[in-house]
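Re: the request from the purification team.
They wanted to know what the chain is likely to look like in 3D before they choose a buffer screen. I agreed to run a prediction and write the result into the notebook, where they can find it.
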Amino acid sequence: MFHFLITMSAKDTIIIIALSCLWGFNFSAIKLGAMQTDPILLTALRFTFAIFPAIFFVRRPAGDARYLIAYGLTFGLGVWGMMVWSISLGLSAGMAGLLMNMSIISSIAFGYWFLNEDVTVAKIGGAALAVAGLLVSLALTDGSVPLAAVPLTLISAFCWSTMALIVKASKTEHVFAFSVWGMLFAPLALVIFVLITKGTQPFIALPSQLNSEVWFSILFQAYPTTLLGYWIWNRLTLKYPLSTIAPFSLLTPIFGLIGSIIFFNEGLSAVKVIAYVLILSGLALSQVGSTARK
């Protein structure tokens, strides 16, 4: 079941566990800001600060600019725009981290179609368990998984797999530069999305909403979570198969739930525990005997 721990070096395993902890607590930081300001605009500010001033000190990586654009749009609007929006609709910080791992399904599919990775019985079984966990989570009655937030969460999970595929396809050797320059295209897409869907009101209201908690949310997301975190993640994505890297995110919802319990007093019901066990077991099971097709 823990085959993926053997396929990675001890150093990389420790690094990715620490990264999972950081990302797990990030969901609480997101919720702190999303409760007080427009979620898409909050995400735009996150990426704006992640880019500047870093982009002035990082040379643009060689390669097709289409990969940079695709990365920025997918990462900014697809992954985090949709996830932060779902959190603003009431999705708890603990369940947000868990449901993002529904990316297991698209990761397996992309690995097979584009990266010549086998789809084993274990992977299919793991995906089935994850779907079962999603269905169980819909039975929660404590408001931590509102139905309106679920489609946005699934879009975010799909885009997570897409983002990893884009990094693989780019064949970039300068991961940090790729991340920074790719994120350059995220804020504009997010701002345009706000203008189209909500008009100018969120921009008018923003200055009065930028208190110390919102600033903490923005800066925590921008620097340790985004600049440092995704530089590490993308390096490991290039180094290991997509289907091997993906399951390490199973640790993120555990830390996410811990953070949500600490900061938001999130309850831990039997139904929620079952959803966690199903989805995380599915992620682990999907890694049994992971190999690449010749």
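For the purification team: The CA atoms of residues 25 and 259 lie 5 Å apart.
Please add any questions underneath this entry.
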